Amino acid sequence: MDHRFSLLFVFSLVIATSFASAADSDGDDVIIRQVVGEDHQLNSDHHHFSLFKSKFGKSYATKEEHDHRFSIFKSNLRRARRHQQLDPTAVHGVTQFSDLSPAEFRQKHLGLRRRLKLPSDANKAPILPTNDLPTDFDWRDHGAVAPVKNQGSCGSCWSFSATGALEGANFLATRKLVSLSEQQLVDCDHECDPEEADSCDSGCNGGLMNSAFEYTLKAGGLMREEDYPYTGTDRGTCKFDKTKIAASVANFSVISLDEDQIAANLVKNGPLAVAINAVYMQTYVGGVSCPYICSKRLDHGVLLVGYGSAGYAPIRMKEKPYWIIKNSWGENWGENGFYKICQGRNICGVDSMVSTVAAVHIASSH
Ligand SMILES: *[C@@H]1O[C@H](CO)[C@@H](O)[C@H](O)[C@H]1NC(C)=O
């Protein structure tokens, strides 16, 4: 049996019976016990853990490690149920990250460097007209989005967000989609924040997309993914070869906290580098995420590739559209590697740190 569906079944029981006690902070535990009884709960946790291990090929070296992971897994099941209650238009459940504590998850799979504000000297994107924007738009339909990649156990999200934006910009400039090297950024980009000199891009320990654009501008460009492949570690030396540059930055700028401007820049300039709070993404399975509450503390870099509204009927916000976001956790996460999050309230900070990049038009030989 597909554990997603069995979990969904539990969730739907929880939801059906829980609204009265949702205010109780430990409400879902109480309800689960009422629904299935304590013995069943334990058996069902074991069952879900077995399915999880086989689906994601997990094995643990020792009994201690196994028991430790099982206890984290159980608390993540409770967290997924809580997320489901707080975010009813998405589906939350077991993911490949269900045996990681929130701290491990942040350290290994996110990687946006903490910062207090955007650099005041960052170029601001010019204000664009917004009257003729399409109601739905998806750069995947226009060939500007490379296949979903996987950052592995390395806090290098920022490099994937930056390459994704430059891949799109380069496509607009050249009409060719070329996958670009995150490893070059991980190994070679140590660009520091102009305002916080001790805060620099540092491989698997995090970085910022704007600093990555600054590095790329100074270095001359990025190599192809295939010429400088991803290893998921930052222990290697920089192997940048200037003669193999595949795409170059012309300029980059930050977009104001205005969803119409974000949409207009997306349609005109290609996919955008955005930051987000990823707490709901650890348990996200599909649908449009629109949590009642979500921290705006940014901890993850991703790529905004489109927006839409079809098939989304939220309870609270009628016909509000959503953003379509490309993540870097492989195709087995989320909706084939993508995430949908509702527009309208700067949910999880998704509108607060958005940058656009333009690529140098490299004249192709005719
Ligand atoms: C950025 O570069 C592109 C491509 O060269 C150019 O068309 C655009 O005007 C530039 N934008 C800014 C704000 O300088």
TrEMBL record:
Presence of keyword Iron-sulfur: no
UniProt-listed GO biological process terms: proteolysis
Domain Cathepsin propeptide inhibitor: 49-105
Span of domain Peptidase C1A papain C-terminal: 133-358
InterPro entries in UniProt: Papain-like_cys_pep_sf (IPR038765), Pept_asp_AS (IPR025661), Pept_cys_AS (IPR000169), Pept_his_AS (IPR025660), Peptidase_C1A (IPR013128), Peptidase_C1A_C (IPR000668), Peptidase_C1A_papain-like (IPR039417), Prot_inhib_I29 (IPR013201)
Family: Belongs to the peptidase C1 family.
Protein name per Swiss-Prot or TrEMBL: Uncharacterized protein
Organism of origin: Camellia sinensis (Tea plant)
